[in-house]
Design brief:
Blueprint: E1 32-36, E2 40-43, H1 44-58, E3 62-66, E4 72-76, E5 89-97, E6 102-108, H2 111-122, E7 129-133
Antiparallel strand pairs: 1-6, 1-7, 2-5, 3-6, 4-5
Helix pairs in contact: 1-2
Amino acid sequence: MLQPKKTKYKKCQKGRLTGKASKNCSLFFGTYGLQALEPAWITARQIEATRRTLSRLLKKIGQIWVKIFPDKPITARATESRMGAGKGSVNLWVAKIKPGNILFELTSSSHEIALYALKIASYKLPIKTKILFKK
């Protein structure tokens, strides 16, 4: 599972997901990409499930780049705990996604396999996505 090795502050505030992505919004490494159309928090488990799906479908004919990293900790209180005991411990790690972010990039020798792999991979994510490709 993806998570940071070290963090200066173990817990952070929620924040807001307003606006559109200004960085990481065009294809840089690969010829095909998966672009987010909605703002969301994507968990490390969802990223890993998507990455495994892509690698299983592409086998050895393609290369994958994961362009997002879950660096935001999400805390959770213990169930049935009373109020006033402070903030809970870190439960999971998420990546903050804004509309326009490129989530995954890949190269493949086959156009059909690449599009099929990205379509299947998009089902693993909780947001609407768009498939991009360089001409």
